[in-house]
Amino acid sequence: MSLSKMIPQTTVLAALCLALVAVASHAEESPAPAPVAAPIPAPKSASSADPIDSLDAAQLQQTIEILRRDHVRGAQIDELGMTRATLAGLLERLAPGASFGGEVPPPSAPSPFRSEILDDRAGYVRLGSLQSENIAQLDAALRDFSTKNLHGVVLDLRATPASSDFALAAQVAGRFCPAGSSLFTLTGPSKQGEGGFVAEGEPLYRGPLVVLIDEDTAEAAEALAATLRWNAKAMLVGTRSSGRCVEFSDVAIGDQRLRLAVSEALIAGQSVYPRGLRPDIEVAQDPDERQEILAASLKDGAGVYVFEKERARLNEASLVAGTNPELESEPAQSGLIDRPLQRAVDLVTAIRIFRKPG
Q1: Is 288 within 8 Å of 111 (Cβ atoms)?
Q2: Which single residue of 12, 20, 78, 211 has CA 20 to 30 Å from 109?
Q3: β-pair type (256-267, 246-253)
């Protein structure tokens, strides 16, 4: 059962909030480390103790020579085969920041903005695409929220398509982060001495913030989630993000395509690529079910998929009136529940209870 149905259990809620405050305090007290050069990472699926990483240059060369000399198909490992194997290994190790083959993916269809107030408790903002029109609607929604006595705001990035427009992501972050905050920096061969983004102007919202992410949260949206966690003390709910917190470029190689990360976003000197962001509260949901909910909530509203409502029941009044509400009423909901959003609403409620004086 959702915490929204268990409000009297303030001890549980307070304990949860204490843990959250501890996380935020730790982040606030820890100085931002300086950026450091990192080696080519092992692939995501590799063990942290990859035996290949333990070999020095001489041992690597020795292993290759043994394979070429003694393996049953070693004679087939010519220089071209070695070069192909090198490329395949590099692509695997640089994933998800590099891929080869296929056509350039078409631009994502625009994803609309939506906002509403859930149960008079939480302001809900579904950002949609990173575009100026949606940011203008975000401003209007946040100003409207400021006139209400809300527990907090939930920013949903699950319907934000991948985009390399980090400047627009910085504009969104500036609505929540203190003026002058260093948001993120793009680093790469073409970004020497540039690529830093700073929050401009005073934020439109300063209260409790929960950000919804999933495995499709990538590129500029992933940098946005990371900087909101660091600079706005936002809590992340959902599943680990994609790890593609980079700016991509597409290069034609013959009739194939090389897609590579040409810069990456550093938040407080730390890289998100390739591991992604681990949410503070992990709430998994079937991807197909999530997409069905996100599509339907544009028409029905997000609240329909958060609060579990009872269906109307037959009672004495309906018997007298000769009606049967069980037959005449529509089902309270389709049975679909947006679990991550439900948990996010519970979280802002818990924070409000914990912070309430007395």
Answers
A1: no
A2: 211
A3: antiparallel
Place of tokens 């333990």: 54
Per-residue pLDDT of 282-294, as tens digits, reads: 999 999 999 999 9
Q: Are 341 and 157 spatial neighbours (Cβ–Cβ below 8 Å)?
A: no
Query: What six digits make up the tokens of 259?
Result: 């897609």
Q: What is the 3-state secondary structure (H, E, C) of 261-289?
A: EEEEEEECCEECCCCCCCCCEECCCCHHH
| Residues across the chain | 358
- Sorted by where each begins, the domain ranges of the chain are 51-94, 113-247+261-282
Across 68-88, b (16+ Cβ under 10 Å) vs e yields beeeeeeeebeeeeeeeeeee
pLDDT greater than 80 at residue 278: yes
- Phi, psi angle pair for 199, to nearest 5°: -70, 125
Q: Which residue matches tokens 């090389």? A: 258
**pLDDT tens across 126-162, in order?**
999 999 999 999 999 999 999 999 999 999 999 999 9
C-alpha span between 32 and 121 (Å, rounded): 34
Structure tokens at 46: 């590799």
The pTM (predicted TM-score) of the whole model is: 0.80
- Residue 196 CB burial class (10 angstroms; 0-12, 13-18, ≥19): middle
The pLDDT of residue 7: 39
Lookup: tokens for 321 = 């009136």
Residues 6+ apart with CB under 8 A from 21: 354
* Helix (H) / strand (E) containing 260: strand 256-267
Mean pLDDT of 96-104: 85
